[in-house]
Write a structure and sequence with these properties.
mainly alpha
Length: about 100
Amino acid sequence: MEMYIISLVFATMAFVVLLGKGDFLISGYNTASKEEKAKYDIGRLRLLVFVMVMIVSIGISLSALLEWDEVEMSVFAGVIVVLSVISTVLANCWAKKR
């Protein structure tokens, strides 16, 4: 049951960011100067964070629903690491203003 609550918290945070009320939740962006923030397309950055957090939320729900064992959870953790690297690259390329 607690896994579903955690998943719901993540999904809620994702929608808060997408709706523009949770920019303070975006690591790095929340501490950047105004000049640094101006270099990023906040709409794209919000969308990127939304997708990443929703993937994590869905994965947590699936892990509870399918009762994943340690091996499956390890694979999921690896997927999250890869997605984190991809989202970092996208944040610095796709979400950056040209």
